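Task 17 of the worksheet. Students: predict the tertiary structure of the chain below and write it out as structure tokens. Keep your answer in the requested format; marks are given for formatting as well as content.
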Amino acid sequence: QVQLVESGGGLVQAGASLRLSCAASGRTFSSYRMGWFRQAPGKEREFVAAISSTGAYTYYVDSVKGRFTISRDNAENTVYLQMNSLKPEDTAVYYCAAARLGVFSEVTVYDYWGQGTQVTVSS
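Model answer:
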């Protein structure tokens, strides 16, 4: 069992930065690949970024490449999402998730989810 708790969301102006954190419980955190997803009102949950269990590999949706950075600290059981140059279209609830296996960008392969943190970017 893995429990995930996100934090760091908020209301910012376009161009600002935020860093989201996701704290995980359990001793097996380092065996999971971790992902960040987001869901805007009226839209499906979409993949944002993922990181391999060791942190050696990262993946991003095209719309955030060069602006967002995913990282993890396995000693602290935490995964981060650094978001720079935020745009109004980044407004959504952001979720972190943990998966053992599967295609990193697919919602269905993730076994555990956090409750989400709201990010609102004003123009």
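Marker's comment: The two ends are 40 Å apart (CA to CA). The CA atoms of residues 36 and 96 lie 4 Å apart.
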